[in-house]
Amino acid sequence: LLKMSKEIMGEQHPDTLDKIQNLARNYFDLGRYNDALHLEEPLINISKQILGEQHPVTMQRISNLALSYSYSGRYNEALQLSEPLVKMSIEILGEHHPKMLDKMQALANIYSDMGKFEEALQIAELLAELSKTVLGDEHPYTLDRLSNLALLHSKEAMKLAESMLKMTKESFGEEDPLTLVGMHTLSNQYSNMGRWNEALQIDEPLVKMSKKVLGEQHPATLTRLSNLANRYTEAGRFIEALQIASTLVEVSKKVLGEQHSDTLVRMANLAVSYRVIGRYNEALKISEQLVEMSKEMMGEQHPDTLRRVHNLAQDHFHLGRYNDTLHLQEPLPLAELSKTVLGEEHPDTLARLDNLALYLSYIGNNEKALEIGEPVLEKCRNLLGEQHPSTLIAMQILADIYSRVGRHQEALQILEPLVEMSRQTLGEQHPHTLWRIECLMEIRADINTPPSDIAPPKKSSHKPFKGIFGCSKNTAGNDSHKMIIVVLAPVPVLEYI
C-alpha cells in the first residue's frame, strides 16, 4: 500500500505520510523499534515542512517518535522531544485537554525509565489530579494514572494501589479487564518491596481469571503468566518457575514471533530459571543468542541489551570462566555504560557495580573490589532501604570480599543482621536465607565465635539449590585455620514486560 501510495500520490502526499506512520506503528507493535525509527525520523521533518510544527498530526508524530526512542533505550533523545512537546501542547491545547494528559504521561514514563523518579513523581501526581478533574474519579484513564502513581510513590504506593483496586472492583466488577490491571499493579508493588509471597497470592488467581476473561494466548494473559514465573523465582520456588517459563517461551514464539520483544524477555527469564538451578550451560546457550539478537535489534547501549550482557557475564562466572566474564566488560565496563545510559544511582547500575566488585575479587583484585563494593552498599541502603532485596545482595557481596581479605569480624558484622533481615524479608525457608545462615555458622565456627542466637536452618520442604549462593572452605597448605569464603554469584536479573 505504501509503495502504491508513493507512486500514485507522491512521497509527500498526506495519505502517503499516514501510511508511513501506520507502517511504523506496525513495526513498533512487533517490537521492531529500529525499523519504526527508520521511518519516523524523516517523517517528522516532512510533516513539519508540509503541515507545520504545531499541527496536531505533526505533534502526534513527534509523540510517536519519542515513544520509539524510549523503547529503543535512547532516553535522552526521547526527553529532548517530549519536554518541548508538553510545553507546546499546554500552549495550544490547554492544561485540561485529554491529549495533553497523554503527553504528560509519556514524559513521566521517560523520566521513570531514566531513573529520574522525583521528576516522574511530580508529573504523575499532577496528572492524577488533572485526570480526576477532566475525566472523573472512575474513568479508566484516571484509574490507570493512579496505578502509575502507585508504582512511583514510595511511601503511599501500597495504600494507593489497594485503594485503586478496591474502587475498580466496585465500579466494574471482579473480572473486568481494568480490575485485572489493578491486581497486576498491586502485585508489582508487593514485588518491588520484596513481599513476594503477598505478590504470589494475587498473581496465582490473576492468571486464572485472565485465562478465563481474555483467553490463554491473549498478550495480557501471557504477560501475567510471565510475571507469575518471576514471582516463583523471587520466592525461591525455582522448579515451578522453570515449568512455566519453558512453556511460555514456546507459546510466545508461536503467537508473537521469535524476534518480538516480549519473546526475548521470556527467553531471558527462562535462562534465569536454568541459572538458579545450576543448569548453566543451558542458560549460557540462551544468553549468547539473546545478546546477539538484542544488539542487532536494539543496539549495544539499549537497557535490555545491557541487562542481557549482565546475565551472560553471570553464566560465564558460574562456569568458572572469570576471564570471559571480565572480557564482556571491555572496552568499557558494563557498570560504566550503565552510568551513562541509566544514571549513577539507578538500581541496575548499582547491581552492575556490585557484580564488577565480585568479579574483581575472584581474580584477586580485592583492593579495587572493596573500593567499589563499600560505597555501593551505602548507596543501596540510602536509595533502596535497609531491607530491600538488592541491599541484602550488596551486603552478601561485601561480606564475601571481607572474608577473602581476612577481615572476618567485619564479614561477621554484616552477616549477622543480614540473616535476620533475610528471615524477615524472604522467609525462614527461602533458599537465600538458608544459604546465609549456613555461611554465618561456618564463619562463626572458623573464628571460634559463640553462636549467639542464630539457630541452624530448619529442614525445608523445598530442596535448596547452591547454584547461586553457597559457602565453601578454602584451605591453604597445612594451615590449621581455614579461611571461610562466602561463595556468591551475582543475583539473576529477571525481566518484566
From TrEMBL:
Pfam families: TPR_10 (PF13374), TPR_12 (PF13424). SUPFAM superfamilies: TPR-like. InterPro entries: TPR-like_helical_dom_sf. Keywords: Repeat, TPR repeat. The keyword DNA damage does not apply. It comes from the Eukaryota. PANTHER family: NEPHROCYSTIN-3, TETRATRICOPEPTIDE REPEAT PROTEIN (AFU_ORTHOLOGUE AFUA_6G03870). This is Kinesin light chain. It comes from Collybiopsis luxurians FD-317 M1. The lineage of its organism: Eukaryota, Fungi, Dikarya, Basidiomycota, Agaricomycotina.
